[in-house]
From TrEMBL, chain A:
InterPro entries: Bact_solute-bd_prot1 (IPR050490), SBP (IPR006059), SBP_1_CS (IPR006061). Pfam families: SBP_bac_8. It comes from the Bacteria. Coiled coil: none annotated. GO terms for biological process: transmembrane transport. Keywords: Signal, Sugar transport, Transport. This is Multiple sugar transport system substrate-binding protein. Residues 1-20 form the signal peptide.
From TrEMBL, chain B:
Belongs to the binding-protein-dependent transport system permease family. GO terms for cellular component: plasma membrane. Keywords: Cell membrane, Membrane, Sugar transport, Transmembrane, Transmembrane helix, Transport. Residues 85-299 form the ABC transmembrane type-1 domain. The chain crosses the membrane at residues 26-52, 89-110, 122-143, 171-194, 225-244, 281-301. This is Multiple sugar transport system permease protein. Signal peptide: none annotated. It is found in: Cell membrane.
Length: 428, 308
């Protein structure tokens, strides 16, 4: 009997332990808040260092860092589960494309008034970032990281193929020709790579080509697919030609993004990616260069994926504490520390005027090009909860075309038909 | 002894019995309670919740609206669902017989006294123990079309190169092979244990009666391990129908949905496409299918006169 009681006690403890996450607000003493930062390695160290500094200089707030048990990629399922079971953090690191889904949850905080405070200098954030954290006029957090797509090239591989680095006026036809010339099947060298796994990574590189030519992803009301326009077909047809006729594209079927490793080991001449790979490329001692994307009629528009710190509501005090912390974290001085540690881009215009900014540029060769390329990031992917579904259909079409199973028009028309059906379902 | 005294003893007796019964009940439940709570908390309640979810258009972010049977109707018109069914069915059809046959043969081979037998037995179990993430990443390199070991070997032998994980027609077969490699070690272990239970006298008697190795295998070993075969079939069906982790780490369902399995599709619907209600409906379709398959299988086995 005594044993049974002990077992019951243990069970009760376990059950109450499961419901953790909700801290009782202490009447006096510091407000405790939790942040799921989702960062790894150098970025995780940097954010933890900054949080420790904040905790020291702000005795009335205590920030606890947790990775959230997930990397940035896996944060949406994690936060979805956490919100359902009422064990959610105050702040989480979430991709900008998830904002429309997240904002549907009533526990998402509303910081619209808070960011009006002139001390925050809200207008100092880039416009595309402010757009990404605002859903239907409601500000749900702070910008965290901004990036954009560029072409990284391996100087040695290009030189070996007798090619010069791309100039500022290069076009997609130049890109194709260079990829073809630098491909050396016998040596296992490809001109470039394209992911054909079922995820967003297979899709987002297509959109700048479509946008540059004047096309779009969806119609302005987000009710119909627009990507199967002539602009879309031309873009996919070019890629198909590279993959099927030139055989200059390495088709990456794994979600592990082997492209980067191949680029590091000199098996790819060019690699479409973003600033997040620079620290790795430096560690691998790759002799690389950075260029904006090839252009269409002089338009070098790129795509960006702003990431956010989203705030969730427990009570007024905690929301205010979370906002205070984020205002501090995203201020220019703190961001320069973060950028220098991680190679991230400036999220505020004023950062580029700080004296330490020049040291940061020196630390990451090529980051100046990517930073300047922010001006080429004009549009974001459609802020609708249906986008992930549409993207999956397009990914399927891209794979069909690049594997030579279908031509560009058929593949995109097929994807558009499915996307239209998914977009027609009522709801947001 | 008076009647009243007799009645008193009887009721006293009953009280005692009741008390003992109560004590037994408490003791019984205190042993069964924790497990019951775990099953309730982690299986039955979530199952009921998922059933309720499957009648809504919930995205897990906001409370969904009731849509009745719409999710189930949508299922019938969903080409990806049927592709997932075909992919999973292919896995099932290839994996179950091959794992049973290979498992039994390897178990027979491992059931002998050779030097270093422990090492060989371990070898077959290691793939089962290694995490699916590690296996998936590793196999992604082995079966890569352009840089993989397999095509490298084919090239050396002068054989035509294969599309492997980059080919919509081969990717599911490759995944099936990987799945087989990671799981059939389990069948080996179960069969090995069963074979070691077969009494040596029976085998010796058969040998004296002139039964060769094949006859002993066919007429003694195979019938003796039949309960294990049924267990492994049921287990394998469940395992194959729930195939998810390797898909996640090798192909993410690509290329062109060629390796989307039902459970991977459920995950995509619920957590990538914010259609958790529809995902729950697909999960319930899977549940119904699994139930039908297993009940049919057990009935078939019972009709053949085998009890499990």
């Amino acid at each position: 009997m005594r044993r049974a009681l002990a077992a019951a006690a243990v069970l009760a403890l376990a059950v109450s332990g499961c419901g953790g996450g909700g801290k009782e607000p202490a009447a006096n003493g510091p407000v405790e808040i939790t942040i799921w930062h989702g960062q790894e390695d150098a970025s995780a160290k940097s954010i933890e260092k900054l949080v420790a500094q904040f905790n020291q200089s702000h005795p009335d707030i205590k920030v606890d860092t947790e990775s959230g048990g997930a990397t940035a990629d896996g944060m949406l399922p994690k936060i979805t589960a956490a919100l359902t079971s009422d064990a959610y953090p105050d702040i989480a690191y979430l991709y900008g494309s998830w904002a429309p889904n997240i904002a549907r949850n009533p526990k998402t905080a509303d910081l619209t008034e808070f960011v009006q405070d002139p001390a925050i200098k809200w207008q100092d954030f880039w416009a595309s970032e402010r757009e990404a954290i605002t859903v239907n006029g409601k500000v749900i957090g702070f910008p965290a990281v901004v990036d954009n797509m560029v072409v990284l090239y391996n100087k040695k591989v290009l030189a070996k193929a007798g090619l010069k680095p791309p100039g500022p006026d290069w076009t997609w036809d130049d890109f194709r020709a260079m990829a073809k010339q630098s491909t050396d099947a016998k040596a296992g060298v490809f001109g470039a790579t394209w992911p054909i796994s079922g995820g967003e990574e297979a899709v987002w590189g297509l959109w700048p080509m479509v946008w540059q030519a004047g096309g779009d992803i969806l119609t302005p009301d987000h009710k119909k697919a627009a990507f199967n326009s002539p602009q879309g077909q031309q873009a996919l047809d070019r890629l198909r030609g590279m993959a099927v006729d030139d055989k200059s594209l390495y088709l990456d079927s794994s979600p592990a993004e082997k492209g980067q490793k191949l680029f590091e080991s000199g098996r790819l001449a060019m690699f479409m990616s973003g600033p997040w790979v620079l620290p790795d490329l430096q560690a691998a001692k790759v002799d690389y260069g950075v260029s904006p994307l090839p252009g269409t009629n002089g338009n070098h528009e790129t795509i960006s994926g702003p990431d956010n710190w989203v705030v969730f509501q427990h009570d007024e005090r905690r929301v205010k504490a979370a906002a205070t912390f984020l205002a501090w974290l995203t201020s220019a001085e703190q961001q320069l520390v973060w950028m220098s540690d991680t190679g991230s881009l400036p999220i505020r215009e004023s950062i580029t005027k700080l004296s330490g900014y020049q040291d940061y540029l020196k630390k990451y060769p090529g980051i100046d090009v990517i930073s300047a390329n922010l001006a080429n990031a004009k549009r974001v992917r459609p802020p609708t909860t249906r986008y992930p579904r549409v993207s999956a259909f397009v990914a399927e079409g891209i794979a069909q075309a690049l594997l030579g199973k279908s031509d560009a028009k058929t593949a995109l028309d097929e994807a558009a038909k499915k996307a239209d059906a998914a977009l027609a379902v009522p709801g947001s | 002894m008076s009647a009243t005294a007799l009645g008193a003893t009887a009721s006293q007796h009953r009280r005692q019995k009741d008390r003992r019964k109560l004590g037994e009940n408490i003791a019984g439940w205190s042993f069964a309670g924790p497990a019951t709570l775990v099953i309730l908390g982690f299986s039955l309640i979530p199952m009921a919740w998922a059933l309720a979810l499957s009648f809504t258009d919930s995205d897990l972010m906001s409370p969904g609206r009731n849509v009745g049977l719409d999710n189930y109707r949508a299922l019938l018109a969903d080409p990806v669902f049927f592709q997932a069914l075909r992919n999973t069915g292919l896995l099932l059809v290839l994996y179950i017989p091959s794992s049973l046959i290979a498992g039994l043969l390897v178990a027979v081979l491992l059931n002998r006294k050779v030097r270093g037998i422990g090492f060989y037995r371990t070898c077959f179990l290691v793939p089962y123990v290694v995490s699916a993430t590690a296996t998936g990443l590793l196999m992604g390199f082995v079966f890569d079309r352009d840089f993989g070991l397999v095509n490298g070997l084919l090239a050396k032998l002068g054989l035509p190169l294969q599309g492997l994980l980059s080919s919509p027609s081969q990717a599911m077969l490759v995944l099936t092979a990987i799945f087989f490699w990671t799981r059939f070690g389990f069948a080996v272990v179960i069969y090995l244990a069963a074979i070691q239970e077969i009494s040596k006298e029976v085998l010796d008697a058969a040998a004296i009666d002139g039964a060769g190795a094949w006859a002993r295998f066919r007429h003694i070993i195979v019938p003796s391990v039949r309960p294990m075969t049924i267990f492994l079939t049921v287990w394998g069906v469940i395992d194959a129908l729930q195939f998810f982790d390797l898909v996640m780490t090798t192909t993410k369902g690509g290329p062109a949905n060629a390796t989307v399995t039902i459970v991977y599709y459920v995950w995509q619907l619920a957590f990538s496409f914010s259609t958790a209600g529809y995902g729950a409906a697909v999960a319930y379709a899977l549940f119904a299918g699994t139930l039908v398959l297993i009940v049919a299988g057990l009935l078939l086995a019972r009709r053949k006169g085998v009890t499990t």
